[in-house]
Amino acid sequence: MMESAVFLDKDGTLIKDVPYNVDPARIVCYSDIFEPLRGLQKRGYKLIVISNQSGIARRYFTAEDLDVAFSALHELLRYEHIQLDGIYYCPHGDVMDEPQCSCRKPLPGMLYRAAKELHIDLKKSWMIGDILSDVGAGRAAGCRTILVDRSKEERKQERISDPKYTPDFIVDDFYGLAQLINSEKVDYERYSIK
Ligand SMILES: [Mg+2]
Ligand SMILES: [Zn+2]
After folding, report:
1. Which UniProt keyword terms apply here (predicted)?
2. Is 144 helix (H, G, I), strand (E, B) or coil?
3. Four-residue CA torsion sign, 188, 34, 27, 60
4. What are the pLDDT digits (tens) for 45-78?
5. Sheet of 86-90: strands edge to edge?
């Protein structure tokens, strides 16, 4: 049987964004993520982190450094009774510099790979992130998408009116997000952009 997943951006979505940080001591989860993630997990959604990590291409840190940071994230979530089912990251720089990359969001490569490896039905899955590149990746992969626009700034981006980047829903934070996903009546015509 094919599984459903909630794909999650990391920086600015699950944890406070500290650019290019791999120091476990500086990883701080947003406190509003725990309850919704537990709820989604209980409903049978796989929880999978999908993250651009160009700090590797830029040589700010190594894949080993990143593994330490990811282990710390696993641990912080496990402490809250949340089990991540996978973490996928793109180590490449900008697509201009690395045309061979098919995974840096807004490209959907990481979602395709996760779907293949973890037997996920992308059409029954969601992509959640704090910027429109996350939305773009989700849409390109055929997922439904939610923009968690904590600063209320991202929704002002011009490209949000491009169908490739238009989220199904915009929320200010994680509260209510689980209910949104759990409600079976997702109506594409009804979402509104403030
Ligand atoms: Mg982000
Ligand atoms: Zn890549």
Report:
1. Hydrolase
2. strand
3. negative
4. 999 999 999 999 999 999 999 999 999 999 999 9
5. 86-90, 46-52, 5-8, 126-129, 144-148, 169-171
**Pair 88, 48: CB distance under 8 Å:** yes
179/182 Cα distance (integer angstroms) = 5
How many other C-beta atoms lie within 10 A of the C-beta of residue 25? 7
Tell me if residue 9 is catalytic.
yes
- Is the pTM for the entire model greater than 0.90? yes
Q: Which ligand is nearest to the CA of 54?
A: 2
**169 Cα to the center of ligand 2, angstroms:** 26
Distance 87 CA to ligand 2 centre (A): 14
Q: Can you give the pLDDT at residue 184?
A: 53
Indicate if 187 belongs to the active site: no
Q: How many of the other CB atoms lie within 10 Å of CB of 92?
A: 22
Q: How far apart are CA 29 and CA 50, in angstroms?
A: 16
Q: State whether residue 130 is helix, strand or coil.
A: coil
Q: Residue 29 phi/psi, 5° resolution? A: -75, 145
Distance CA 28, CA 17 (A): 9
- The helices-and-strands tally (H runs, E runs) of the chain is 5, 6
